[in-house]
Amino acid sequence: MASDALAIPNVGAAGKPWMETLHEWATTVDHKRLGILYIAYALIFLVIGGIEATIMRIQLIRPHNDFVSPQVFNRMFTMHGTTMIFFVAMPILFGFANYFVPLMIGARDMAFPRLNAFSFWLTAFGGFLLYFSFLGGSGLYGAGNAPDVGWWAYAPLTARAFSPGHSSDYWTVSVLVSGFGSIGTAINIIATVLSMRCPGMTLGRMPLFAWLGLVMSGLVLITLTPLSAAQIMLLVDRYLGGHFFDTQAGGSAAIWMHFFWIFGHPEVYVLIIPCFAFMSEIVPVFSRKPIFGYPVMVGATVCIGFVSMSVWAHHMFTIGMSSYSNAFFTITSMVVGVPTGIKIFNWLGTMWGGKLIFKTPMLFCIGFLFQFLIAGLTGIMLASAPFDWQLGGSYFVVAHFHYVILGGILFSLFAAFYYWYPKITGRMMSETLGKWHFWLFVIGFHLTFDVMHIPGLLGMPRRIYTYEPGRGWEVWNLIVTIGTFVQAVAILIFVANLILSYFQGEKAGNDPWDAWTLEWSTTSPPPVYNFAAIPTVASRRPLWDLKHPEDPDSLYE
Amino acid sequence: MSAIANPVTQTPWTLPYRGKVAMACLIIAESAIFTIFVVAYLFYIGKSLSGPTPREVLEVPVFFTICLLSSSLTVHFAAKSLEHGKRGAFLFLWLLTIILGGLFLFGTGQEWHRLIYEHGLTVSTNLFGTTYYSLVGLHAFHVTVGLLMLTVVLLFALAGRVGTEQTKRVEVLSMYWHFVDAVWVVVFTVVYVLGR
Predict the structure, then answer these.
(1) Does residue A156 have a cis peptide bond before it, meaning omega lies within 30 degrees of 0?
(2) What is the mean pLDDT of residues A311-336?
(3) Of A76, A491, A550, B49, which shows the fewest CB atoms inside 10 Å?
């Protein structure tokens, strides 16, 4: 009855009382609404994580700065890393997969809609739990609050003796809970792709988006679970007095590193594979050509999935492993570059001889190609054990993986936003604001992360809250911080574009890009049931067949 | 979209049952969790700084292992009976599965009671205690969850709500139970054969 009293008529979608709208969103099991919830939730955390990064960069703008205390700095890099990986990148990619996998394979929903909702709310609860640590991690009693053990939480930092209070517990439990959510969604995506395809949609005709979603979900099943297992062990140590990572009782700190990186490195591929999926859908449409080397793309992705399982210890060259281990992990880490290189050649092959259209999504895709290549090259450098001994734990490493995550993952995500926003909302995003966003972000990104390699090469270690003057690091840190602000402005333009276009954007129609996959055959935004009649397909580009009945793809595949 | 209809659609379009796909995925994920616990157990064999050691306190639970492994057979034939509409046989075999699983759990409880009260071995005693209780406990937890689900199905069956049309769902649960048994084979080998 309270909800009736609070209801304000004629506010919210379709004139429904807003409490009712809220109730609908909170209890929804529709894959499209859950997709939007995932994406919106991730965008909020993107801004929070971005603010944490900015706080760190302000602190490092000049030597002996005292913008924040060392304790706060530790919390900032821990929260920034954990937030960006578990509560931005994962949910946003799951959001896109949730929204578009059923649409692309011609299904009306995911295989398990209620599991889908459950998984989202688990992930969401994990995020709230992490941030509640600011209050609940004994912060109210002045015993330090948010976790400060780094996003990889190396033992023995997490032992009771070194991490009193509850901040590490909040970290552990929130990562564990969101991990279960991710496993649920991964199971759901696999079951959807394998069991819900529309008639004629054989595995060989599935859009690469669905294929790569399948591989990504398979990778989630076997990589997130080791992390969950390690978190359970950490909880046993912290709450039941166990000795898994307790070196005083014969336990090993190195085994936590192994368990963490068995998750940690394939996780990078969990994040980048959906981005390969965005590239593989967007580049062909804006080159007006079908994807080059479809079977090779699928094969390379599966290959990346397998090889990525055996590269984890290249994060651990500096702890002193045997020379056989070093050689093995150096070789596997370099091998994983081969299928990745194949993919880059395939996108170039798609663009080659195509009629390129330089709309905002394509601009971000081209940015991705250049930056992901450079990120891959510094990756190959760091994969070489002797090089890593010199630069492991320096800002060179920080620059390398931010190049992958921003230059690769975030750029392709922006491309995906500009490409699919019309389908989700029914309105186009502004091209003018989009171009401003692109160019400012490119400039800011390169100012920050190209330059960040240099203090790394000059020996600046990561995770220090301040540094001495006179080491030649000052000017580089100043430029890096300036770049951060340029990126922040670009992100604000992006957020403004998202909001303004929702109200003022040009009406999109069903198929604004003249694309070829099934999601463009239904209305924008799609109805709850997606397709009035379940479609039937005969080739990899069903809408091409529909638009060109005289020359369908099905004749050639 | 009907315009895209073509000869391919004339052949019947069948896809794998989503429940089985999902259970297979869950089993893969769970296997990875168990793998990590098994690796930790193997890594820490003989690394405890103080007693008691596995050789001193562990006894091989032959009877309870036979109980759990044979419950895999009973659950399989229970599902088969349901498929062929033999309701009585299904109920009997299903109940037998629950009893065998319950016996196994009782065995684990008895062993833990003995270890704790006679030998003073707890999670915090030494590395053996930590890894033993975690690995065996994780498995026992999965047995418990399996037993709860089996019991729910039994209650529905007693209420007359489980018929031939539920065969697929019962088979999904049976997959999980087979997995729990297979994990015990690994845990048994690691804890009672290699670790002793």
Answers:
(1) yes
(2) 93
(3) A550
| The pLDDT of residue A161 | 87
Q: Give the integer Cα–Cα distance in Å for A75 and A53.
A: 11
Q: What single string gives the DSSP state of each residue in A23-74?
A: HHHHT---HHHHHHHHHHHHHHHHHHHHHHHHHHHHHTSSTT--SS-HHHHH
Asked if pLDDT for residue A354 goes beyond 50, the answer is: yes
Give domain limits for chain A.
2-555
Q: What pLDDT score was predicted for residue A141?
A: 63
Contact by Cβ (8 Å): B150, B94? yes
pLDDT in tens, B144-160: 999 999 999 999 999 99
**Spatial contact of A173 and A152, defined as CB atoms under 8 Å apart:** no
Residues of A in Cβ contact (< 8 Å) with B48: 249-250
Find out whether B25 and A186 touch, Cβ atoms under 8 Å.
yes
Find out whether A453 and A399 touch, Cβ atoms under 8 Å.
yes
Spatial CB neighbours of A23, under 8 Å, sequence gap ≥ 6:
A3
- Chain B interface, mutation test: which of A109, A187, A553, most B Cβ atoms within 10 Å? A187
Q: Per residue in A84-109, pLDDT tens? A: 999 999 999 999 999 999 999 999 99
Q: Which of B36, B127, B138 sits opposite A230 (nearest CB)?
A: B36
Query: Above 80 in pLDDT, residue A7?
Result: no
Q: Which residues of B touch A217 (CB under 8 A)?
A: 25
Residues A52, A57, A59, A65: what is their CA dihedral angle, to the nearest 10 degrees? 180
Give pLDDT, residue A1: 33
Q: If you average pLDDT over residues B57-76, what whole number do you get?
A: 96
Averaged over A213-220, what is the pLDDT? 96
Q: Could you give the domains of chain B? A: 18-50+60-194 (1.20.120.80)
Structure letter (DSSP) for residue A249: G
Q: Mean of the pLDDT values across residues A341-363?
A: 96
Provide the 3-class DSSP secondary structure of residue A403: helix
Residue with tokens 């529905």: B156
| pTM for the full predicted model | 0.93
| Closest by Cβ to B124, choosing from A197, A242, A535 | A242
Residue B22, chain A, CB below 8 Å: the answer is yes
Between A and B, how many residue pairs show a Cβ–Cβ distance under 8 A? 138
**What is the spatial distance between Cα A273 and Cα A94, in angstroms, rounded to a whole number?**
12
Residues of chain A contacting residue B42, judged by C-beta atoms under 8 Å apart: none
Q: Do B8 and A521 touch (CB under 8 A)?
A: no
* ipTM of the complex in this document: 0.93
Q: Determine, for residues B130 and A542 on separate chains, whether the beta-carbon distance falls below 8 Å.
A: no
Phi and psi angles of residue A461, each rounded to the nearest 5 degrees, phi first: -75, 155
- CA A147, CA A162: separation in Å to the nearest integer? 12
**CA triplet A136, A137, A138: central angle to 5 degrees?**
85
Span A2-555: which CATH code? 1.20.210.10
**Helices (runs of H) and strands (runs of E) counted in chain A:** 19, 0
